[in-house]
Amino acid sequence: MRAPIGTFEDAQPATERLGLLPAPVAAAVTAEMIHVDTDPAKADTADFVATYGEDLKDASANCVVVAGKRGSDVTLAACLVLATTRLDVNGTVRRHLGVRKASFAPMETAVSETGMEYGGITPVGLPAGWPLLVDSAVAEAPYLVVGSGARRGKLIVPGKVLAALPGAVVLEGLATPVA
């Protein structure tokens, strides 16, 4: 199978790669998702793009776990934004979650709560009940590369499929371009 974006030697339907995916991701992948086998040492966006294709710079999305606090209550959520943008944690995220303070969740929290590896967290297979805030640019993209839940491998998913994941809410202005 040939991936619709990038230059990957090994691409297969994600439903045929369940053994390479963490349990929550394996339980949630669908037929529209493609798994590409990649070098775990090249999982960070800059290294990934240099290795697998410059066209992926504008076709990659990052899933970030945030923690919103109001008093002693903590709300965990995931945000999905293009890799070329910066998440508006203190504005759009904070207001949407209805919290007084929002920040990136600690690595240990993100890993333990999602069951995924740091550096590979994906919006596919998030814990039930978590809000998934999706930037409108993500929803409009034909295909995007996102994490697979592990540092080895990525998923290629149509933007409309990402916008339809459980708990997803598409928001304008969730992210701004990096200057």
UniProtKB/TrEMBL annotation:
Transmembrane segments: none annotated. One of its GO terms (molecular function) is aminoacyl-tRNA deacylase activity. Gene3D superfamilies: YbaK/aminoacyl-tRNA synthetase-associated domain (3.90.960.10). It comes from the Bacteria. Residues 40-162 form the YbaK/aminoacyl-tRNA synthetase-associated domain. This is Cys-tRNA(Pro) deacylase, prolyl-tRNA editing enzyme YbaK/EbsC. It comes from Actinacidiphila guanduensis.
